[in-house]
Amino acid sequence: MKLAFPAAPPVSLPIRGSNERFPVHRIYCVGRNYNDHVKEMGGVVGRDPPFFFMKPADALVADGRFPYPFKSLDVHHEIECVVALGPGAAIFGHAVGLDMTRRDLQAEAKKLARPWETAKGFDASAPVSEIVPSTEHLARGAISLDVNGSRRQTGDISDMIWSIPEIVAALASYFELRAGDVIFTGTPSGVGPVQRGDRLHGVIAGLGVLDVEVV
Ligand code: MN
To answer: Which CATH class is domain 23-214?
Structure first.
């Protein structure tokens, strides 16, 4: 097969303790998966079925730099646990991720019943740490985000409305999950704006950290 022009380079993520990299297929994201975040966004607390959106695979950035995007004056951090799937859609590992969001564009999209791509799927909208290999799903662990040394978001993986196995099962009812898929599993409360020069420090206790500078 001869390509008309060079293909975009494949997206991959570092794996802790390995010289190999994790080849990314798709990025799925879960909305509203912690009740305290549902409340802060003005939603109704409950256990409605999970809903999903996507980001393009090349929105992942693992170099610790988040370029402030165009066309928004209100870009928010959402610290999240990220699940990486391997062959057979089995758990391959986890990572610390940020579901960066143009909140002003998302609010407008919600109001007009329009899609979320410009709010959620923009370039570099998915900063992520190395993947920590594990065959068991993560069920608990404190998750937090500091901005310039001040605590902004706190929660615990055990607070998720839909657990990781439940999210994987629900997603699999809509999509054929493949090795290389990564899933952002939702954010606890405390989301808020970032500015150029901010330093974001995300932690999932017992798993890992993610350090990102807004540039
Ligand atoms: Mn999110």
So the answer is: alpha beta
pLDDT of residue 13: 98
Residues with CB under 5 A from ligand 1 (ion): 78, 99, 187
List the one residue out of 30, 41, 39 whose CA is nearest residue 192.
41
Q: Distance between CA 143 and CA 182 in Å, rounded?
A: 18
The rounded Å distance from CA 29 to ligand 1 centre is 7
What pLDDT is attached to residue 171? 97
Strand, helix or coil for residue 87: helix
Distance 186 CA to ligand 1 centre (A): 5
Residue 4 CA to ligand 1 centre (angstroms) = 37
State the pLDDT at residue 11: 98
Q: What is the per-residue pLDDT for 41?
A: 87
First to last CA, the chain: 40
- Regions in the chain scoring below 50 on pLDDT: none
Domain boundaries along the sequence of the chain: 23-214
